[in-house]
Amino acid sequence: ALRVEIRQVLALLEQYHYNRDAVRPANYAAVISDYMGALDGQRLFFYASDQAGFERRFGNNLYYNVHDLGNIEAAYDIFGVYEQRIRERIAWIDAELKKNFDLSTPNTYRLDRSKADWPESPAAADELWRRRLQFEIGSEVLNKKTPAQAQEAVGKRYARMLKNVAELEAGDLAELFLSSITQLYDPHSTYMS
What we know:
By secondary structure, the protein is an all-alpha fold. It has 8 helices and no strands. It is elongated, with a radius of gyration of 19 Å.
């Protein structure tokens, strides 16, 4: 049923969307980074190498797989890596939260990372996350919590995130992926199941 729906949505876009002539099969490679951004909007979990790997693996055949076969396996594979990265990162966060944080060390953290690059490596991601945790704990302390309470609150936040990711269903992923495709046509076109 989903394959038929995918083909119908793409046929409607190609026949009736006002911007239909601007989208070519080669443009579908952009869907990969857009979908990754939809999953990881603050660019914290994926690595730059993940994007390069997905583009090598899916980029050339994405149009054919989605358009002709109604196959969105790429969406599920990319999500699988995202889910794995979140699990790894939250385990890392749990270990980091058991340490003492020196909040007197001056540091910076960019709050809006939506336009930033993904970290180049796990080591770069670790450094990014250390700064993020220091910022989050510092923010909690400024809200009149003790450092121990702050670390507990931050830990609960990430445990909730892990639970939310585990509850995502295939239909949610399909909707995100197909929205990434509709946004090739214009940024205001969205797929809603």
